[in-house]
Specification:
Blueprint lengths: L4 E5 L4 H13 L3 E6 L18 E5 L13 E4 L8 H4 L1 H22 L4 E7 L22 H16 L7 E6 L1 E3 L16 H10 L4 E4 L5 E2 L1 E3 H13 L6 E5 L5 E2 H9 L3 E4 L14 H7 L7 H6 L2
Helix pairs in contact: 1-6, 3-4, 5-7
Amino acid sequence: MQINRVLITGVAGFIGSNLLDYLLEKTTWQITGIDNLSTGSKNNISTHLNTTRFRFVKDNIRNLNSVKQYDCIFHLAALPRIQPSFEFVTEHITENLTSSMHIIELMIGENHFPKFVFSSSSAIYGTPTTIPTPETEAIECLSPYAFQKYEVEKYLELLSTRYPLDYICLRYFNPYGPRSFNPENKFNAYSSVVGIFLYRREKGQKLLVTGEGSQKRDFIHVSDLAKANYLAAINPNKLNTAFNIGNGSTLSVLELAQRISGKDYEFIPKREGESDITFADVKKAKDLLGWHPEQKMEDYLKSN
């Protein structure tokens, strides 16, 4: 299928807005973006609002009544925070599962199946036993958020046995990069730790390290995520599978704090429901999508 018209859900969020930047630069596609601005910001996409190739819709995904005009859907809209998903359970189910299923039901009802690129999460692995972690690792969801992401993956898998779905799930590890921290977002305390640390340093505040800071993270730059989405969309094969999208290396949260702010940090209690380590085996994405990470954390920190 040739791609001409695409939909990005959650376009005003951290990853969605960076994907928009990437697609406007790398393609000639006509892009519609939808976002209810509950956690995203219109400032993230302000430079593109008068672009003829981009149309912004401020609305809830569940108000979509057709997807027939699209050749590809990048589904990024979500409430992407582990800790709040324990407290606001129904809200997270609605935004992370019900909204996703609404899009899939529209495809089924219209008998129109655009390429569907779903933003999943490495959180579904919990604390894995295999390091680096391949896509075949056992699933161990430690939070409602992780479970909701995995539910969407399983629904896609099950429904594809009956309908001609054409989908790819991208299991993001720990994204960082421009716009990762929005001070106006009510969930900003659970944003990318890189963005939080840089923001606190900018404000002259101590960095807050949870637990002992020994938890290790595989940090992946958002531009590498955007490229993964693009390569998933243009892949000519119906893969119907999941891919790890990480940097393939780890850094402890304490080491990150020290790199950003020297010794200007303090420790706070550990958060439950978060894994001790994330470390992606990305061989599958390299082999089947032709994707590999290009950005380096040290370069990003130097530029900030």
